[in-house]
Q: What sequence folds into this?
């Protein structure tokens, strides 16, 4: 694929606001000048938006103001006119009921802020889990030149001589306390070791995964994903991206030129190699939907099934993002895929060049972090897409984070009708459950929670943990944090709140999980299943008004990306009418 740059100079989109002598043009310019802008800033140079998700309520993004200044330097240096603006910031660690509920809202905010403003291109400043997909979704819907700059991961955590992975060790330590292997005092002491610098999760959680997806898609400069937040090279990356977006505007290099079918295939395979989060499935399906690329759950299974997971990072492995960066980062991974014939080498990136030209010189500096293929964590990584009468629309599981002995398992269902039911009963020693059972959680999907919270990796009952058991099969229509681990079946579609078969599973039913054969089966007859579904009625709360009601009424299933039904594949005019 060869990208042909547009002619330059030419009249840009921002000239509709600033480029003339009419009353309307003077109106637009004069108000901007109250910020102390000289007249020659409106001479036709590219106007670049810095779309900033900085927020003190989004701790992962709390340092983005500094990066915005570095982007601004690069834009000025390249002859552009930078203008920074805020958008809704979806903080995973603080936002209730779940940040995922607001991903689509944030994408609408981004889309309309870009469309309605005098911008020729935009830099997307992201970090925390949902900020990356929401900004990519919004920018893709407008299709102006755009480049992603991520905030970078935190430095390694350390506690009692052990690496502490954000999220991953939270789950681990919490279970250890319940099992009597760790004191509450030690747990509180470990808290200070978990997040010791600015940045997003230092594991291959969803934030690091989506930073990797942005780079693998070609929407960020090569090497962007892994640079720690506090490393000076993160500021350099922001500066260079500010320079680059100006040239992208001159060349008219847009998301639709980059986000092709070939780019999504590269990203899916990359996700398998890095042991990326299951959340990437939903987000890439949604981004693909915005640009009209036909990406499906079946593509995730087909493209990622035979990809070995050779990046040795938590939660699948033992290291953290800091070591991944020192080892060479994502360019090494993409290069290895290319050498194995698993990369669309000519896919165009924001650099204006094919992806292969960006990575072919990458070197691996640590083969304990980026493993040789023969020592991969699993030879069949990626995302396993399961189907059967329990999940006719599909469900997903991350093999690299699962227990091998549970990938083929038949067990008795222990059912929790919703998350409150789970919390009320899980610690009760009278609960009839052991390690051979399969835990089933309902009504936690897009409509049911609402927003599809990260509760799918249900903590095990204390009575099982005290036996030394650390994993059981768990099935739900929820998500789980990318930092989590275990033999966890997620995103079961259709969800329970929409009347999917999950809604009628009963405690005592036998369920078969067969990951090698991609099977998830409820062992009742078709007739009994049909009768149960006919008798079923929804039990989840339906919001009465506001955004929550809009979300409930219009969100689609996890199997298609959980975007709104009125947003997929729709692009309006890039230049709205002037109201003056």
A:
């Amino acid at each position: 694929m060869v990208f042909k740059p547009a002619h330059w100079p030419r009249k840009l989109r921002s000239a509709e606001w600033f480029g003339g002598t009419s009353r309307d043009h003077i109106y637009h310019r004069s108000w901007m000048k109250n910020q102390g802008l000289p007249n020659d800033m409106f001479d036709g140079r590219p106007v670049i938006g810095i779309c900033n998700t900085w927020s003190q309520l989004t701790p992962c993004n709390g340092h983005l103001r500094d990066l915005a200044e570095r982007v601004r330097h690069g834009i000025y240096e390249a002859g552009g006119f930078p203008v920074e603006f805020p958008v809704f910031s979806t903080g995973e660690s603080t936002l209730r009921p779940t940040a995922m509920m607001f991903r689509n809202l944030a994408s609408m905010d981004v889309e309309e802020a870009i469309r309605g403003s005098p911008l020729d291109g935009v830099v997307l400043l992201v970090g925390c889990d949902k900020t990356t997909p929401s900004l990519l979704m919004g920018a893709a819907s407008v299709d102006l030149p755009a480049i992603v700059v991520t905030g970078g991961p935190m430095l390694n955590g350390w506690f009692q001589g052990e690496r502490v992975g954000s999220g991953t060790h939270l789950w681990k330590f919490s279970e250890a306390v319940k099992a009597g292997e760790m004191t509450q005092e030690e747990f509180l002491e470990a808290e200070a070791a978990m997040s010791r610098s600015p940045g997003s999760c230092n594991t291959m959680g969803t934030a690091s995964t989506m930073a990797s997806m942005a780079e693998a898609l070609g929407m960020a400069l090569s090497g962007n994903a892994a640079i720690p937040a506090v490393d000076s090279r993160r500021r350099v990356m922001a500066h260079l991206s500010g320079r680059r977006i100006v040239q992208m505007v001159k060349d008219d290099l847009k998301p639709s030129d980059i986000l092709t079918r070939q780019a999504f295939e590269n990203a899916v395979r990359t996700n398998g190699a890095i042991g990326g989060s299951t959340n990437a499935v939903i987000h890439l399906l949604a981004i693909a939907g915005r640009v009209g690329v036909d990406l499906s759950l079946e593509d995730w299974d087909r493209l990622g099934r035979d990809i070995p997971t050779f990046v040795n990072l938590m939660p699948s492995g033992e290291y953290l993002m800091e070591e991944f960066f020192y080892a060479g980062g994502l360019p090494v991974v993409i290069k290895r895929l290319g050498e194995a014939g698993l990369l669309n080498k000519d896919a165009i990136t924001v650099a204006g060049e094919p992806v292969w030209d960006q990575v072919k010189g990458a070197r691996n500096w640590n083969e304990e972090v980026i493993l040789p293929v023969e020592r991969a964590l699993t030879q069949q990584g990626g995302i396993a897409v399961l189907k059967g009468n329990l999940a006719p629309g599909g469900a997903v599981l991350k093999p690299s984070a699962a227990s091998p002995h549970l990938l083929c398992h038949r067990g008795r269902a222990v059912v929790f009708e919703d998350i409150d039911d789970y919390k009320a009963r899980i610690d009760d020693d009278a609960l009839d459950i052991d390690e051979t059972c399969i835990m089933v959680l309902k009504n936690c999907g897009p409509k049911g929670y609402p927003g599809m919270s990260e509760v799918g990796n249900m903590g095990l009952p204390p009575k099982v943990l005290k036996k030394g058991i650390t994993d059981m099969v768990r099935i739900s229509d929820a998500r789980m944090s990318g930092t989590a681990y275990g033999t966890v079946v997620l995103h079961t579609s259709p969800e329970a709140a929409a009347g999917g078969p999950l809604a009628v599973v009963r405690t005592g039913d036998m369920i078969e999980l067969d990951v090698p054969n991609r099977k998830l089966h409820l062992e009742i007859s078709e007739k009994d299943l049909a009768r149960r579904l006919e008798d079923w009625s929804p039990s989840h709360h339906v919001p009465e008004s506001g955004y929550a009601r809009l979300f409930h009424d219009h969100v689609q299933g996890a199997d298609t990306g959980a975007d709104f039904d009125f947003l997929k594949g729709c692009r309006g005019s890039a230049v709205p009418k002037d109201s003056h």
Observations:
- The chain is about 35% helix and 15% strand.
- The chain has a mean pLDDT of 95.
